[in-house]
Amino acid sequence: MTFHFPRSDRGQTLPIYIWLTGILLFAAFAFFAFAQAASARNGAQSAADAAALAAAQDARDELIDDLQGAIGQDDNWLDWLDGKQDPAGAGATAAAQQLAAENDSTVQGGAQPTVMDGYPGYRVDIQTNYTVGDSIIPGTEGMQAKAHAIAVIQPRCDFDLNADPEKPVELDCDGEIVNIDPGDFNPDDLPDANVLFSVHLAE
After folding, report:
1. I need a labelling partner for 53 at 20 to 30 A (CA). Which of 29, 176, 184, 198 fits?
2. Rounded to two decimals, what is the model's pTM?
3. Contact yes or no for 122/88 (Cβ under 8 A)
C-alpha cells in the first residue's frame, strides 16, 4: 500500500530544512572563528614562553660572567651561586625581542625583572604582529593576540653554607661535582652555565 502525504506537509518541511541548514552553517563558522582565536592565542603563548626563556638565559650568562669576576676577588662570591645576587640583565630585553620577532610577535614594555619563589627571573608580555583574521565575529580581522610568560633562574648546586670563600669549595650540581679554588682560579674551570643554573618557565 502506498501512502501519499499532502502537498502542504511536504511544503512545510522545506523552510525547516533551510532553517536547520542555516543553524549548522552558523555553528560551523562560529567554531572556525573560535579555532582561529585559539590558534592565535597558542601562537602568542609560544612566543611569550620563548621570549621569557631567552631573557632569563641571557641573564644567566651575565650571572656566570659576574661569578667569574667575583671568585678570588670578592669574599661574597658564593652568594652568586645560591641566587642571592640578581643578574644585571642588560641584554635580557634584546634577547626577548629577538625570540619574539622570530615568532612574528613584539615584546611589550621590555623584559621585566621579577622574583618567583625566591628566584630571580623575567616576565615578558608580547603581542602578535598578525591578527586573528576574518570571521563571522565582528572586529576579529584587526584583533591581535596577547600573552605573557615568566622564566626564572634557579641554582642547581649545593655546597657547605659555612664554607670559607677563600679556600677550595666543592659544589654538588645535581650530582656533578665542581671544585673551585679561589686562590688558584681559572675561568675556564667553570662548567657550562646550565650546569650551575637551570632556566625554566615559572607559569
Report:
1. 176
2. 0.76
3. no
